[in-house]
Amino acid sequence: MRLGYSMSYWGGAGLGPADHLALVREAERLGYDSVWAAETYGTDPASLMAWIAGRTERIGLGTGVLQMSGRKPVVAAMTAATIDQVSGGRARLGVGVSGPQVVEGWHGEPFDRPVERARDYLSVLRLALAGRPVSHSGPTMTLPLPGGQGKELSLAVSPVQERLPVYLAAMGPRTTALAGELADGWLAIHFPPGHLAERTAELRRGAERAGRSLDGFDVVPMVLTMVDEDEELAYDMMRPMLALYLGGMGSRRTNFYNRLAHTLGFGKEAEAVQEAFLAGRQGEAMSLLPDALVDAMTMCGPPGKLRERVAAYREAGATGLVVGLVTPTLRLRLEQLELVAGLVA
């Protein structure tokens, strides 16, 4: 199983650029396969990957994930190809539909027909990265613009990799199937092993629709992680970030992480967390997270327990594992990187 490190959202824990670079370099030294940067309405992960490319030698460089509403697919192709060029073939392009709070509030676009939009997006992205003339007619996107003066164009720079890997972040069954149909990998955020295994049927359904095999397809859970003999401390360290995801990562009506908690059997708890969080009672929201829910959606506790969790991910079909760290200082995060590496070795 290939191990990745998520820088998550820049600025957390008061870490600066030098601290983040130190973490990435340590991950590379420890043998991590990849580093990933997230995107909301703060730092730009593509810029971070280009910056890291010039300061590392081997580690893969992933966007985890770019919001489709923030970049047209041809721009995402240009960005990924450029990072692949400057890094010597280390780029990995993760994309996702995001949610209405960001799509409508930050990008000013309607959040409708997300699966259809993702299909159009991936189709155009694939054409562009393959160096083919971009011509596409779909329910949400048509290129070139009909009736205009434009013509079919091809990407003027080629990625170093023959097939630059494209990952789709997906939580629902239809988008998961779309990953199996059109992507090279699936980023499964906060999925426990059992739910990951259940959703692989959707991947197969999508692959069958495309007449393709899933041989070589990457199944990559992205999981908040903390290794500590003090299990209660580990739970408490997870609660602030998990409360944010269940309570504030989305609107009251549309929060995909909250929906995941419902699917996992924690519907009442997830609703209570969201209600408290949106009312400004973040401390209460954290206290409402039961240990069982924290266990389901994160990976935390003693090394022996976490080794079993890693083994369960392997058994569920995961080919990679990307960990996000929550400890509050650079020193503690450096320690966590080494502890996590020991779990997968």
Number of helices: 14
Which percent range describes the beta-strand content? 15-25%
Number of strands: 11
- Give the CATH H-level superfamily of the largest domain: Luciferase-like domain
Catalogue the unreliable spans. Answer: none
User: Can you identify the CATH class of the largest domain?
Assistant: Alpha Beta
Mean pLDDT: 97
Order of helices and strands: EHEHEHEHHEEEHEHEHHHHHEHEH
Tell me the radius of gyration: 20 Å
Topology:
Blueprint: E1 2-8, H1 17-29, E2 34-37, H2 45-53, E3 60-67, H3 73-87, E4 91-96, H4 100-105, H5 114-129, E5 136-137, E6 142-143, E7 166-169, H6 173-182, E8 185-189, H7 193-210, E9 218-227, H8 231-248, H9 256-263, H10 267-278, H11 282-287, H12 291-297, E10 299-301, H13 303-316, E11 320-325, H14 330-344
Parallel strand pairs: 1-2, 1-11, 2-3, 3-4, 4-7, 7-8, 8-9, 9-10, 9-11
Antiparallel strand pairs: 5-6
Helix pairs in contact: 1-14, 2-3, 3-5, 5-6, 6-7, 7-13, 8-10, 8-12, 9-10, 13-14
Describe the structure.
Keywords: Oxidoreductase. InterPro entries: F420-G6PD/mer, F420_OxRdatse_Rv3520c_pred, Luciferase-like_dom, Luciferase-like_sf. With 345 residues, the protein is an alpha/beta fold. The protein has 2 domains: 2-229 and 302-344, Luciferase-like domain (TIM Barrel, Alpha-Beta Barrel), CATH 3.20.20; 231-301, no CATH class. 48% of the residues lie in helices and 17% in strands. The protein contains 14 helices and 11 strands. It has helices spanning 17-29, 45-53, 73-87, 100-105, 114-129, 173-182, 193-210, 231-248, 256-263, 267-278, 282-287, 291-297, 303-316, 330-344, and strands at residues 2-8, 34-37, 60-67, 91-96, 136-137, 142-143, 166-169, 185-189, 218-227, 299-301, 320-325. The strands form 2 sheets. An 8-stranded parallel beta barrel has the order 1-2-3-4-7-8-9-11, surrounded by 7 helices. It has a two-stranded antiparallel ribbon with strand order 5-6. β1, α1 (17-29) and β2 form a beta-alpha-beta unit. α1 (17-29) packs parallel to α14, α2 runs parallel beside α3 and α13 packs across α14 (330-344). The model has no long low-confidence stretch (mean pLDDT 97).
